[in-house]
Amino acid sequence: MGVSGSGKSTVGGLLARRLMVPFLEADDLHPAANRAKMAAGRPLDDEDRRPWLLLLADRIREATDSGQGAVVACSALKREYRDLLRRASAGVWFLDLALDRATAAERVARRAGHFMPAELVDSQYAALEPLRPDEPGLTVDAAGDPQVIVDAAANAVRAAH
């Protein structure tokens, strides 16, 4: 979980390979209307996100029911979003990729071909509710080396499960 540019796709892909489970990019599940809205520089609101989060929860349930599990890259910016995803499976665990605004904006500005423009980074920080101590997961500095982050996450996941 984390704001755009925090490394969710990079770290998530590496972690999925390390844990030998499928990787799901939640951005791929956004409906065309959400993508168009963000591409036009307008942030999503809770109403925009709800159907997307419900679809993602279904995918999490499917991964759990298969017995295989998965690593999912999803912003999960608010506690209520994470609560919805946790209701999909008791085993949902979050890796909070914490990153400062300037670095996130710089990373997003460098990306080519992504629907999320750098001017929306501030709106993500406005919505962000960092992972709380009572939520299952780990918060890491996303400015660090992705391999080091994956090592810490893999160890924490194994300890939690």
Write the layout of secondary structure elements.
Layout lengths: L7 H12 L3 E3 L6 H8 L6 H20 L5 E3 L5 H10 L5 E5 L2 H10 L10 H7 L9 E5 L4 H15 L1
Parallel strand pairs: 1-2, 3-4
Helix pairs in contact: 1-7, 3-4
Pfam families: AAA_33
GO biological process, one term: D-gluconate metabolic process
Keywords: ATP-binding, Gluconate utilization, Kinase, Nucleotide-binding, Transferase
Overview of the structural elements:
- By secondary structure, the protein is mainly alpha-helical.
- It has one domain (8-160): 3-Layer(aba) Sandwich (Rossmann fold).
- Helices cover 51% and strands 10% of the residues.
- The chain contains seven helices and four strands.
- The strands form two sheets. A two-stranded parallel ribbon has the order 1-2.
- Helix 1 packs across helix 7 (146-160) and helix 3 runs parallel beside helix 4 (79-88).
- The longest helix has 20 residues, at 46-65.
- The radius of gyration is 15 Å and the shape is globular.
- The relative contact order is 0.22.
- The model has no long low-confidence stretch (mean pLDDT 91).
Number of helices: 7
* Average residue pLDDT: 91
| DSSP strand content | 5-15%
CATH topology: Rossmann fold
CATH-derived architecture:
3-Layer(aba) Sandwich
Low-confidence stretches: none
Please identify which CATH superfamily we are dealing with: P-loop containing nucleotide triphosphate hydrolases
Helix/strand order, N-terminal first: HEHHEHEHHEH
> What value does the Rg take, in angstroms?
15 Å
Number of domains: 1
Helix content: 40-55%
Overall body shape: globular
Question: How many strands?
Answer: 4
